[in-house]
Write a structure and sequence with these properties.
Strand content: 15-25%
Number of domains: 2
Pfam families: NAD_binding_8
InterPro entries: FAD/NAD-bd_sf (IPR036188)
Protein name: NAD(P)/FAD-dependent oxidoreductase
Shape: globular
Helix content: 25-40%
CATH class of the largest domain: Alpha Beta
CATH architecture of the largest domain: Alpha-Beta Complex
Number of strands: 16
Organism: Rhodococcus zopfii
């Protein structure tokens, strides 16, 4: 029987492990931490019983993932839950844009921009499953679904600020800009529209769900599938060099490129080592979990019912904040993502005390304290927030990296979404997963298709390994 070792038990490492085990390999996963999950762990940080997600919180791409959908994760304990509103984006004056799973309802809520919203996102949502098969894999491939790709591609290449000119209302413009900000890249740069298009289209196909009982349950479900296939997971096992690993036909590394270069040392071809060392990092997150009595007192009618709230203000303010962080400047009013998972999953709360998840977009490696920036943005749209906060737990970019070493400098998306890295990451290659060392592959979020809890990086990398193994055999 062929054997494989996977280093790292995040969603991508587990996806790689499952894929290899499904093909009959004897697979062992080695995880440095005492708990598996990487960016999909959950914990009680402030009060006993008050459940916070340590990393990823809302999972639109997870539910849409072709690989996850191929597994019967429900049989392994995974349950999805949805709030009434997927996304709200509050504006000054008590107004807000709202996006819900129903395209018809979103069109109605957006008024004058409803028709434009339907024209742009309706076709993408209708063909999203086919589109996902094209965009959740390396960009260099022979496409099988040309029509949805043709609908998506030309608009996706545009800067979000350019495509955003179609909107006539502040609400639609802010919704689109907030979705585009998930790229953590200046919105006046090419390809940033891709994120705005994807996140809205997913909403109208699958919604933006959370995992009942915390994001860690998704990790647990993947681990359950893997162990049922005969796989083995060893926690507390830190690997410092490839030479420490026992012989194996395949080695999968759920690690960021710099860590792969450290692990491989001189075994890595010089050109690959150089590419991994110059891999560009994205701006950072500054994360604060709050315990809030009675929930946030939003001024508008939608944010109090939304699982996700983008807090920054107008589309122009979002663009300005994203521009600043990529220039190394901390915005006075940063883009803040708020997740209120308890609206869909009430068991996360303790009585009338609710867990509120937030992070601000900050410069890479930011060393300041953005807690007050976040609270100020919340107060702006939910006055009285400060009085309701009974506890908080902050994680700086450095603390995020200490908790999960793949998050270098607080980069939670696995590398900058420059046009080149969006299309060819972690290096320019026809097989981005192959490290150049026979049998060794990288499968982290720094590989295609990039960030998100979807497992496709690991699944794609494992398929690459299987193809090379079969050819060698």
């Amino acid at each position: 029987m062929s054997s494989a070792i996977v280093v790292g038990a995040g969603p991508n490492g587990l996806a790689a492990a499952v894929t290899l085990a499904q093909r009959g390999m004897d697979v062992t996963v080695l995880e440095a931490s005492d708990t598996i999950g990487g960016g999909t762990r959950s914990s009680e940080r402030i009060l006993p019983g008050l459940l916070h997600d340590d990393g990823a919180a809302v999972h639109p791409i997870g539910l849409a993932s072709p690989f996850f959908r191929s597994l019967d994760l429900a049989a392994h304990g995974l349950e999805w839950a949805w709030s009434d509103i997927d996304l709200a984006h509050p504006l000054d004056g008590g107004r807000a844009g709202a996006m819900v799973a129903s395209l018809d309802e979103t069109v109605r809520l957006l008024g004058r921009d409803g028709g434009r919203w339907r024209a742009l996102f309706g076709p993408l949502a209708d063909s999203f499953d086919e589109l996902a098969q094209e965009v959740l894999r390396p960009m260099v491939h022979v496409p099988r679904h040309l029509v949805p790709l043709a609908r998506f591609g030309p608009a996706a290449l545009l800067p979000a600020t350019a495509l955003g000119r179609i909107w006539r209302t502040d609400e639609a413009a802010a919704l689109f800009a907030g979705n585009a900000a998930h790229g953590w890249h200046p919105l006046n740069r090419p390809t940033t529209s891709a994120f705005g298009l994807m996140f809205a289209a997913i909403s109208h196909r699958y919604g933006w769900p959370v995992v009942k009982g915390g994001s860690a349950r998704l990790t647990d479900a993947l681990a359950s599938v893997f162990t049922e296939l005969g796989g083995c997971i060893e926690t507390g096992h830190r690997v410092r060099s490839l030479t420490e690993l026992p012989p194996a036909d395949v080695v999968m590394l759920d690690l960021e490129p710099g860590a792969v270069a450290d692990l491989a040392g001189d075994a890595l071809p010089a050109r690959v080592r150089k590419a991994y060392r110059r891999f560009r990092r994205a701006p950072a997150a500054f994360k604060v979990d709050f315990a809030v009595e009675g929930g946030l007192p939003w001024r508008d009618e939608y944010s109090s019912r939304a699982g996700t709230v983008h807090v920054c203000g107008s589309a122009a303010e979002v663009a300005a904040a994203e521009h600043d962080i990529t220039r190394g400047r901390m915005p006075e009013r940063p883009f803040v993502l708020v997740a209120q998972q308890y609206l869909a999953d009430p068991q996360r709360s303790v009585g009338d005390v609710h867990p509120v998840y937030t992070y601000a977009h900050v410069p890479h490696g930011y060393t300041g304290d953005a807690t007050e920036h976040i609270i100020a943005q919340l107060e702006r749209f939910a006055p009285g927030t400060r009085e309701r906060i009974i506890g908080a737990h902050a994680r700086t970019p450095r603390a995020l990296a200490d908790h999960n070493p793949n998050l270098v400098g607080g980069d939670i998306i696995g590398g900058a979404n420059t046009p080149l890295q969006l299309l060819m990451r972690p290096r320019v290659s026809t097989d981005p997963y192959y490290t150049g060392i026979p049998g060794v592959y990288i499968c982290s979020a720094s590989t295609p298709p990039g960030a998100g809890v979807h497992g496709m990086c690991g699944h794609n990398a494992a398929l690459s390994a299987l193809r090379r193994t079969e050819r060698a055999g």
